[in-house]
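Request: When convenient, would you put together a sequence paired with its structure tokens?
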Amino acid sequence: MLRNLYVNLPVLSARVIYCDVPMLNSSNWRQPIFRLPRWVRSYGLTALFTGSLLGIPVAEAWAISSTNDDIPAVPLVIPEGNSSCNIALTRTFNVTQSFTVRDVTLGLNIDHTRRGEIAAFLTSPSGQRVQIINNSNDRDDNYDVLLVNNTSNNLDDGNADNTSAPFFDRDAPSFNGRLAAFYGTSSQGTWTLELCDRRSNRTGTYNRGQLILNDQAFFDDPAFPAVVPNPDYNGGCSANTDIAVVLDASGSINATEANLTRQAVRGMLDELATIGGPVQVGIVEFAETAEVQLGGGFTDVTVANITNVFQPYLTNTYKNQSATLGSLTNWEAAFQETVDELLTDADVVIFISDGNPNTISTGGGTSFIGEDDADALAQAMGPANAIKTAGKHIYAFGVTEGVNIGRLVGITDGTNSTVFTGGNGSTADYDNVSTFNTNDFRAELISLVQGLCATGGTNNPNVLLVKRITAINGNRTTNPNDSTVLNTVVDGGTANDGDNHPNWPSNYLVGETDAGRVKPGDEIEYTVYFLNAGTANADAVRICDRLQTNQAFKPEAYGVGADVQLQLGTSTIQTLTAANDAVDRTELITTGTVPATCNITGINTNGTLQVDITGAAGTGIPSLTTLPGSTGQGQPNNAYGFFRFTTTVDQ
């Protein structure tokens, strides 16, 4: 079992990252102005509205609506048995009008005897691709839906859809609210729809689609406060950093969900405790009313305080205050309590809710008005705007599909809101964790604070390591001993492991953590992948990997003088020697003590491979002085890479 994989970052961070990966086997929502009546949307009219439209009060405004229909001559078969969705039915909508998109709706009419097998993606003219329907356990027939971002309905409503006319007569949310990702983009150009069926034996057909783009959103209605822009956060994490965490404890969070919230917040705190500082965290808990926790202020995030202060609160207090806080959902109270008690010191606010606001504060009490009433959002926008006016950034997270994405957008940056993707922590505004489980939610919060803490201060680099077995006896497809597949992307199985970071290139981490059976004389190839997930350069990056017992390093596994292979990004693969020489910066330390910079303890009985990823220019391959921080998936090209080597199982 491989248990040791090390990297040392002595410059800037002096942080040691340790990766431990076992390897071998041993609604009646008030209509906003852009939701035109269906007869208007059907013809894509651009109109000047005044007074009242079908009884709906609207203000005088130009409302640009571009409706684009796709009606094939015959129903088109959706490719099936395609779990990765790399083969899809592709349809396009060509939009000629040019304006800034503030709302997107998409009509889909599909025949299928088990619609939960369908997955759908939409790509904008700029190349932004988002998943809008996820495959699920929905066993009902057919989709005839209009995917929107301002509905409290469910995509899986428990009923089969009738695909005959009238079309698109059921509103449903897009997966994870991702249609909102197109807010602020340009309308003009080709929009691409992709459909696939992730299972076989149930053939589905695409009958028609309709893409509707609008230039106005519900919070443009004069009934809503003007949205204050959400300022970016670039302050990093240090002893001067204060993070306000606002937790939903309303009645819609059941015991299981409450436990998942505890684990996710605990994961975030554990991550914050590793970066130095210490950072301070304050907590506001809300339901019908709100109350600041932990003594009414901010608490240092240290290992001791996590054990003695934060964990007792999460275990014993969180969600156990129904007599005090009530059970309804009052976003207004949550933000107002944050303003009143924590705003002076707070740098950022992390807001977490599993439901839409349904209650407002009235004088000395509260009033339930229902989650479909827009006034619940309008009231919450007031104190949310106050937070942003004070220069503090709000991150809003919905943790179930029931959260209305439009409301998350309304309390953050309006039509300019940006979806959190993992690599944009300083500028992102919101995200929706559609599946409320430990892995998703915990990974989301940890990824956020990793991004926040990488934007400034002294703890910028964050080098992640992932190790996989990529070949047995030279075969990179399967293990010839037992046919274990070796050329697929495998998750290590632990929440927020290094392999979960979104800045890894797509389908990059190929290999197995359990490669199956091996026997004496077998040759095992290990690949160590690395990524600087921070936003600043990492200097003097040294990776040291101690060989497992009962294995011997195989020299010249890749040719004469080629003991190790190394690749930065997509550049040419380099071959390195494992000898102690000046040709390159790789060395197999076979006996004696390894350098202190390896941070490996214990006796070096079986050899340690030392690879200096960075170093002074002119000292050999690779000619890389620093490992830059990644700015997105696979960007820049030299922010990630791998090295590989081969061992032989002892006879």
The two ends are 17 Å apart (CA to CA). The helical segments are 38-41, 255-273, 303-317, 322-325, 331-341, 375-389, 405-411, 438-453.
